[in-house]
Structure formats: structure tokens, C-alpha cells
Amino acid sequence: MQNKTNERFVNPYNFVPLEEKCERSKYEQGTLTGYLTCTLTTLTPLFIPNTSCDHALHREEEKDDNYVSYNFYSYEDLSGEGIRKDGFYSPVIPGSEIRGTIRSVFEAAFNGCLSQVNKDEPLHRRSMQPKKPALLRKTKQGWEMKECNRIILNTDPRNRKKESKYGKFIDVKTLAEGQVLYFTARYNKKRTTIINYSTNGTKNEKKNWNIGYVHVGEPADNKYHESLFVPKNSRWEEVDDGEIERLKKVLEMYKNNNKDNDTHSGYKEYTKQLYDILQKDEVEIEQEYYFLVYYSVVNEKKCFFTPAMLSQEVFQNTVGDLLRENGHYEPCESRHEVCPACALFGYISKHKGQSLASSVRFTDAVTTDKDNWYMEPVVLDELGEPKPGTVEFYTDKPEKLERQKRMSAKYWTYDYVILEEKLDSQKFYSIKKRANRRQYQSFPAWI
User: Fold this and answer.
1) Cβ atoms within 10 A of the Cβ of 215, count?
2) If residue 272 lies in a helix (H) or strand (E), which one and from where to where?
3) pTM summary value
């Protein structure tokens, strides 16, 4: 791959390409038996951890350090007090490791399915387009939403004396997610600022103050405000249950990514409020339960609800959907449609009576060399993994859609494409004018 500066860029996740279609047939049991004895030679360094002790190579003075160190896999249980944890034992390569490696090669060589892929794995990426605020409510009929305006609340102590510019100062410690705030405001072209506020509705309803709902975001460096969602004078719109499910997946993802982070809570309180509402029964739902979200608009539909204006999005299309649409490479689940790899190595199906036992078995590989088993201990770099959310690496730019709409694909995902209208190349525009002429539209990615 060449970039604009003609420097070569290598994507480390380019592997053997798939063929046009994964060929499957009905499983037929074989009748041949036998065995092979093989000798393996490690041409490059190899490491398989013995996970019975995660500080096997720690020195005495390092015993309380948080990092981990593993010995190479062996039949020794290193968890016992009597075991010498810094010893080097006869190395073993488990049969399961050999089996997995050979199956991967077999799948690539004989056009097998992608058996190890979680077909229900949600695809996601961080949105590059600012989202809009909205108010959700749950009713007996389901979920509804109302568009909102967003007002910045001055919660930065550094701006306590700049209320004429940033609005009345509000101590963030007195605010809670979803809290009702009664307020009066000053409106101008640059910003809307709070003049006065109260959390006591009974006293201020007579004054005909406006009503907003506080959205408390996650902590961040140099953060100087929280947000107030003020419902517009518009109708409530029906929300598909699938949007709520994707919002739950977004919050679950933030929770998992921040479970060891004390600063970023992973939207714990925000998530708790959503699940509290989801658990309300029909009697309780007579009341109105509100929830604050940000949303995008795709083909005039309000969708992709998230807890922040710039946030991760979970897409409707999953890994399984993409594999089905591109050659049916999703994992096998039926004996009536089995790829060559699954016919030999077997698979587990969710459907009763459709799982298939393996026709091959691999034993452990044990060493025959009594010397030079190990290199000196080394510190491994942090490992990475493919990032399917970076669609520019894993998908083609939607050129066909560009020709149809005479537009340029500015940004695309697995669900939709954002197009930028092509500018008249015969006229010169300054950077500022070009920016003012840009128009954005959204189309589904499958058009």
C-alpha cells in the first residue's frame, strides 16, 4: 500500500485472502484409520506460558510488582510453595496448540470456514461526526425520543468569576445524571448561558422558568463544563428496540474497557439508570422515566444512541453478517453443510444433534534435546490485535456509490456512508469558502 508521500505502508493484518465462496457439502463419515509420528524443529523462538504461576521469573525484590512473568509450558505445577518457581523444566508443546496451528493452515489451504470467528461479535468504531442530544422515555408501547437543545453548564471553578461570559457557576458535586434543572438563560449567536437556576420546581414553576435535564459526562483532562438537555417543542418519535440493544452494547464495551480504570468509570451510573428503567414493570411504567442520549441521523432515521457526543458506535451488521454476505465463510453449524476443515477437525454447533466430532487427534510434543532448551528470559512487547473498526483497512472505498451520487465518500462504516459533495474543480475556492460549501449526506453502506 502506498500513501500520499509515496512511503510504503504495511498492514500487519493482511493474511491469506478468501476465495469467492466457502464450498460446503453433506458430511460423510470416513472409514480409514492410522497415525503419523512427526518431529518438529523450532526455527524461530517460541513461547507458550505455564499459567500455573504468573510470577515465575520474579526476583525476590520484585515479588510484589504488578507485572507478570511466566515460565515455558511444562507438566510442572508451579503454584505450590515447594516448587522452585525460577527453575527451567522440560518444555512441552500441548497437542491443542499444534492442532490449532495445523487447522488454521488447513482452513486457508482448502477454503474452509473461519471457524474461530465469533459471528455475533459486534463491530464498532468511534464516531467522527458530532451527535445530537435527545431525551428518551419508556412507555407501555415501547421507547420514544424527543429532540433536545444542548446548553453548556459552567462547572469549571476557574470560570467562577466569569459568569457574564460562561453563565452562572454550578458546583458539579451538586449535579446528578438526569437531574431536573429549572433555569433562565441568555441567548446569543455564540452561546446560550444560564442566568439563574434551581432544582426546586414547586417554587419556580410560577416564574415560568425553562426545564432541562442534566447530563454528567465522564471525567476528562481540562474539562470545563457539563451539559443541560432542553427538550424541543417537537413530537415524541418511536424508537426501535434494536437501537436500545445497541446502546446497551456500547455501554457494555465501555464497562469492559475501563474495569481497571479508577478515573474513567465506564459510565457506571449512567448504565445503572438505563437498566433500572428497563426493569420497570407495566404498573410502574405509568410514570414517565427519562434517559439522556446522543444520536445520529441516517436516512432521516434517529439511530446510533450513545452516552457522549463523540463516542463509540455499535453497528447493526455483525461479523457473521459480513461473512455471510461475502462467500458464506461463517462457522459451520449443520452436518448438511460442512466445509472441508470442519469435516476433518469437527466443530460445536448450537443446534441439537448437529455438532461433529474431530476425526484427528494430536498428542503433546515433548523435547528430545537435553540441552539448550531456553534463551535468556526476555520482556515481550505488548501485543496487539486486528481492529476491524478501522474500516479503511478492511473494506474498499464505496466508489460505485460515489459515481451514482457524484459525491465523495468522506467517512464510511459497516452500516452507513457519509458522502461529501464534490466541488466544482474549474473554480478556485479558498480553504474557508471550500469548508462553507461542504454538504454532508448519509446513505446505508449496502446501497
Assistant:
1) 24
2) helix 268-278
3) 0.75
Tell me the sheet residues that pair with 182.
Answer: 198, 211
- Contact 381/394 with Cβ under 8 angstroms? no
Confidence of residue 336 (pLDDT cuts 50, 70, 90): very high
How does the average pLDDT of the chain come out, rounded? 81
Rounded to 10 deg, the angle between the 241-257 and 268-278 helix axes is 150
Distance of alpha carbon 425 from alpha carbon 266, whole angstroms: 46
Residues 242-293 pLDDT 10s: 999 999 999 998 888 776 666 667 788 888 888 888 887 655 655 667 899 9
CB atoms within 10 A of CB 62: 11
DSSP string, 309-372: SS-EEEEEEEHHHHHHHTT--SPP-BTTBB-HHHHHH-B--SSTT--B--S---PPEE----S-
pLDDT at 206: 62
- pLDDT tens digits, one per residue of 72-105: 999 988 887 656 666 778 899 999 999 999 999 9
CB-based contact 285:140 (threshold 8 Å): yes
Distance between CA 386 and CA 104 in Å, rounded? 17
In single-letter form, the type of residue at position 302 comes to K
d(CA 290, CA 136) in angstroms, rounded, equals: 5
190 DSSP 8-state letter = S
Work out the number of other CB atoms within 10 angstroms of the CB of residue 20. Answer: 8
149 CB burial (10 A radius; 0-12, 13-18, 19+): middle
